[in-house]
TrEMBL record, chain A:
It comes from marine metagenome. GO terms for biological process: aerobic electron transport chain. Belongs to the cytochrome c oxidase subunit 3 family. Keywords: Membrane, Transmembrane, Transmembrane helix. Residues 1-196 form the Heme-copper oxidase subunit III family profile domain. InterPro entries: Cyt_c/ubiquinol_Oxase_su3, Cyt_c_oxidase-like_su3, Cyt_c_oxidase_su3-like_sf, Cyt_c_oxidase_su3_a-hlx. It is a multi-pass membrane protein. One of its GO terms (cellular component) is membrane. The chain crosses the membrane at residues 20-42, 62-81, 93-111, 131-154, 175-195. It is found in: Membrane. The keyword Membrane applies. Gene3D superfamilies: Cytochrome c oxidase, subunit III, four-helix bundle (1.20.120.80). GO terms for molecular function: cytochrome-c oxidase activity. This is Heme-copper oxidase subunit III family profile domain-containing protein.
TrEMBL record, chain B:
It is a multi-pass membrane protein. GO terms for cellular component: plasma membrane. It is found in: Cell membrane. It comes from marine metagenome. Keywords: Cell membrane, Membrane, Transmembrane, Transmembrane helix. InterPro entries: Cyt_c_oxidase_su4_prok (IPR005171). Its main location: membrane. The chain crosses the membrane at residues 15-36, 43-66, 72-96. This is Cytochrome-c oxidase. The keyword Secreted does not apply.
């Protein structure tokens, strides 16, 4: 049985089902990260002293990672726009760049984490590092999830372009919405953890 | 976003590039602000203000929220209300603590 409304909009919602689905998922994601931001405020306001992130964490590396993620957001949306212009080759180029930038983010994060462990800074060291590793760790898991899905659509999943191009374009729009959300979370994590 | 003409898509692409430049510039601004000695409260307020502008740009243009269906706006309105509750839980706990 075919899944209904994968291309056409449902008359009652005005959206194709996948789009409403991803927005409801993102709403739950807002609550997931929101809970951790709430915990951060609770922890920070509950103590007399709180370290400045820049004294413990590497701001230049995090700035580089911010640039990686915002650039990957642009390449992601460009990959969708390429499909709208019926250009699969450009889609492959932009989706490939998105993957490259996402992997760049992970590599930088790997160096950041391993350096912390090397100098004896662990999640159990203090409350600041506890919330830092929890929030950035959850964010890294989201990046890995995004990489897996984008890679699928970049390689085997792109077969759908031949059989059902509109549905494939919608799939890229959906994964794009997820990816922009992951970027958006980092836009707040960066100043909150590294700069303040 | 289902029925865009090629001209409309090309216009969108121009906007994406402009938004990218703005995001890169604001990232530099965010880092620069952190080097100024403004005090904790002003630094937090300013950093969150800049982050909110960046977040809005991503949501409005990359996620196309500037031109979306009402169903999504309602979904996000409920989410935003619940998110505010989450943020005010620790703040209300703080207020209760100061009364004691």
């Amino acid at each position: 049985m075919d899944i209904p409304y994968t291309v056409k909009d449902r008359p009652d919602t005005g959206l194709y089902n996948g789009k409403l689905g991803i927005w409801l998922f993102l709403a739950s994601e807002v609550m997931l990260f929101g809970g951790l931001f709430s915990a951060y405020i609770f922890l920070r306001t509950g103590v007399d002293t709180w370290p400045i992130g820049a004294d413990i964490l590497n701001v230049p590396l995090a700035t580089l990672n911010t640039l990686f993620l915002i650039t990957s957001s642009v390449t992601m949306v460009m990959s969708w726009a390429s499909l709208k212009l019926k250009d699969l080759a450009k889609f492959k180029l932009y989706a490939g760049l998105t993957l490259l930038l996402a992997c760049g983010f992970l590599i930088v994060k790997y160096f950041e984490y391993t350096h912390k462990f090397h100098v004896g800074l662990f999640p159990s060291t203090n409350t600041f590092l506890g919330i830092y590793f929890t929030m950035t760790g959850l964010h890294v898991l989201h990046i890995i999830g995004g990489i897996i899905v984008i890679f699928y659509f970049w390689m085997p999943g792109s077969k759908m372009w031949k059989s059902d191009p509109e549905r494939f374009t919608n799939r890229i729009e959906i994964v794009g919405l997820y990816w922009h959300f992951v970027d958006l979370v980092w836009i707040f994590l960066f100043p909150v953890l590294y700069l303040l | 976003m289902a029925d865009l003409t090629p001209e409309q898509v090309k216009h969108h692409v121009k906007i994406y590039v402009m938004v990218f430049v703005a995001l890169a510039f604001l990232t530099i601004v965010t880092v620069a602000i952190s080097y100024l000695d403004l005090g904790v409260k002003a630094s937090v307020a300013l950093a969150l203000f800049v982050a909110s502008i960046k977040g809005s740009l991503v949501a409005c243009y990359f996620m196309h929220l500037i031109d979306e269906k009402i169903t999504i706006y309602w979904t996000l309105l409920v989410t935003a209300a619940m998110f505010m509750v989450l943020l005010f839980v620790p703040l209300s706990a703080m207020l209760a603590h100061t009364k004691i």
